[in-house]
Structures are given as structure tokens and as C-alpha cells.
């Protein structure tokens, strides 16, 4: 978005410089400025809107056979994760997910408002006591990703972080079987 806004801003500044120059063929030049001054920004904004809708659509939680469901429960100052695929399986401070598979994270809190945020995988979502919000995340490849609460919630907030470990298929099955902690 910043790149698109910068391109539009730069182009508009060039057009303003051209608009305030003195020239003999002013009517023809003004027509050129008006056309490009409207057409170019609208085209860039439409392209940015299309990109935003495409990316946003991928992050919407939807039903599907290949979707993994996880519950993230925030509390001062830790996250506890429960896995729907394995009854009673929980982890503290480390979220395990399969790589290349959409994961719906049901985010809630037991005490105050927190915020679930994994910058490399998705946007942030508030964890509100007594309410469940769902965020879809997906790691394209196996690896370790860092997450944190992005909501100031008192003393100790600065240490309120967690790790997301995205496993390949074999490691994910090992995790579900209890072979990986």
C-alpha cells in the first residue's frame, strides 16, 4: 500500500509542477494533466484494491476438509494452544501448525484484552474475554515464526511473545501423535 501511495503522490507532484508552469499551449496541457491526473491515480487505486481483496479473501475463515483448527487462549503473560485434531493436546507459548495448510485460530482471552499477532503469517486479531474471534493463518513453508501480543495489557506485556512452528507433513503427524513437544 505504501508503494502505491508513494507512486500516486510522486505522480501528482509532477503534475502539479507541470500545471503551474507558464506555457503558450496551456489549454492542451491542462487537458493532459486532468486526464492523467484522474486516470493514473484511479488505475493505481483499483489495482491496490484488487490486491487487497485477493489477499484478504485468503485470510477469511472458511469451512473445508483441509483446514486445521486451533484454539489460542491468551492470559497474563502467556498463550496456551489447544488442537482440535487431538483431544487434550495443548502447548504453552509454542503454536504448532502444518506448513501449506490453512489454520483457523480461534482467539480468546481469560483475563484482559490481548492481541494475537504473527506478522509474517497474518494480521493481528484481538483476544477478548468471553468472546471468540477467528483468524486464518497459513505458513507457505516449514519454519519458525515469531508472534506476540500487540495490545498493551499492563506490566509484563513486553515479554508477552510466542513462537509458531510450521511443520512439514511428516513432522506434523509426529506432533499429532505426541512424538514432538
Tag the structure with descriptive keywords.
181 residues; Immunoglobulin-like; three-stranded mixed beta sheet; 3 helices
Characterise the protein shown here.
With 181 residues, the chain is an alpha+beta fold. It folds into two domains: 2-59; 68-176, Immunoglobulin-like (Sandwich), CATH 2.60.40.420. The protein is 33% helix and 29% strand. It contains three helices and ten strands, in the order H-H-E-E-E-E-E-E-E-E-E-E-H. It has a five-stranded mixed β-sheet, with no helix packed on it. It has a three-stranded mixed β-sheet with strand order 4-10-9. It has a two-stranded antiparallel sheet with strand order 6-7. The radius of gyration is 24 Å and the shape is elongated. The protein starts with a helix and ends in a 5-residue tail after the last helix. The mean pLDDT is 86. Residues 65-178 form the Cytochrome oxidase subunit II copper A binding domain. Its main location: membrane. Keywords: Membrane, Oxidoreductase, Transmembrane, Transmembrane helix.
Overall CATH architecture of the largest domain? Sandwich
Note the main sheet.
5 strands, mixed
**How would you name the CATH homologous superfamily of the largest domain?**
Cupredoxins -  blue copper proteins
State the CATH topology of the largest domain: Immunoglobulin-like
Alpha-carbon distance between the two ends: 39 Å
Outline the low-pLDDT stretches: none
- The helix fraction, in percent, is 25-40%
Rounded mean pLDDT is: 86
- For the biggest β-sheet, the strand order reads 3-2-1-5-8
Bin the strand percentage.
Answer: 25-35%
Kindly give the count of domains.
2
Number of strands: 10
What is the number of helices? 3
Amino acid at each position: 500500500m505504501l508503494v502505491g501511495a508513494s507512486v500516486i503522490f510522486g505522480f501528482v507532484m509532477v503534475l502539479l509542477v507541470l500545471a503551474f508552469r507558464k506555457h503558450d499551449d496551456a489549454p492542451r496541457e491542462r487537458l493532459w494533466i486532468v486526464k492523467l491526473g484522474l486516470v493514473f491515480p484511479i488505475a493505481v487505486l483499483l489495482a491496490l484494491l484488487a490486491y487487497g481483496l485477493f489477499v484478504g479473501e485468503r485470510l477469511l475463515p472458511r469451512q473445508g476438509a483441509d483446514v486445521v483448527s486451533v484454539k489460542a487462549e491468551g492470559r497474563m503473560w502467556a498463550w496456551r494452544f489447544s488442537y482440535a485434531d487431538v483431544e487434550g493436546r495443548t502447548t504453552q507459548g509454542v503454536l504448532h501448525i502444518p506448513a501449506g495448510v490453512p489454520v483457523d485460530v480461534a482467539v480468546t482471552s481469560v483475563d484482559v484484552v490481548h492481541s494475537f499477532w504473527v506478522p509474517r503469517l497474518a494480521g493481528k486479531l484481538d483476544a477478548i474475554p468471553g468472546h471468540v474471534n477467528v483468524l486464518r493463518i497459513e505458513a507457505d513453508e516449514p519454519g519458525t515464526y515469531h508472534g506476540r501480543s500487540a495490545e498493551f495489557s499492563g506490566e509484563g506485556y513486553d515479554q508477552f511473545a510466542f513462537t509458531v512452528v510450521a511443520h512439514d507433513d511428516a513432522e506434523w503427524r509426529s506432533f499429532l501423535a505426541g512424538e514432538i513437544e
